[in-house]
Amino acid sequence: MDNTENNKQKETEEKKENYKISDKTAIRLLIGFIVVLLIYILGQQAIDIIGTKLLEEITIQEETATSEELSEEIIKININSDNIYELTSLKGIGQSKAQAIIEYRKENGDFISVDELKNVPGIGDTLYEELKDFITVE
């Protein structure tokens, strides 16, 4: 009885781990929600305001960081640590392939290089070529 309870608890904890989101992802989701809410409430005026603010923010970011630093921070998904939600943000990666990446990681340890992703069932050379610039192992 105790062993079954421990197994269920361990399984539940593993499932929770797969669905945790990073602070970065939570902020992106919150910003998206706020934008949609503002557009709904204010209509076109909100779109104009948001567009202006986004352009101002992009200009500020360009002045304070190189475009390479921004692209590294914004679009690279860490296949060694990111969860199922972040993995599914990659083009061509749905729930089942994201879960396969997580399972591969659990069974084999961290990916040593991004090209090791090709060892995951369902991820061939073509999909890898589309993903390689958007993933990292660091």
Short description, anyone?
The chain is an all-alpha fold. It is 67% helix and 3% strand. It contains seven helices and two strands, in the order H-H-H-H-E-H-H-H-E.
Identify the notable features of this structure and list them briefly.
two-stranded parallel ribbon; mainly alpha; 138 residues; 7 helices; 3% strand
Explain this structure:
The protein has 138 residues and is an all-alpha fold. Helices cover 67% and strands 3% of the residues. It has seven helices and two strands. It has helices at 2-18, 23-42, 44-64, 67-75, 84-87, 95-108, 125-131; strands at residues 77-78, 135-136. A two-stranded parallel sheet has the order 1-2. Helix 2 (23-42) packs antiparallel against helix 3 (44-64). The protein is flat and about 55 Å long.
Mean pLDDT: 77
Give the SSE string. HHHHEHHHE
- The computed structural class is mainly alpha
| Percentage beta strand | under 5%
**Sequence of strands across the biggest β-sheet:** 1-2
Helix count from the secondary structure assignment: 7
Chain-wise SSE layout:
Layout: H1 2-18, H2 23-42, H3 44-64, H4 67-75, E1 77-78, H5 84-87, H6 95-108, H7 125-131, E2 135-136
Parallel strand pairs: 1-2
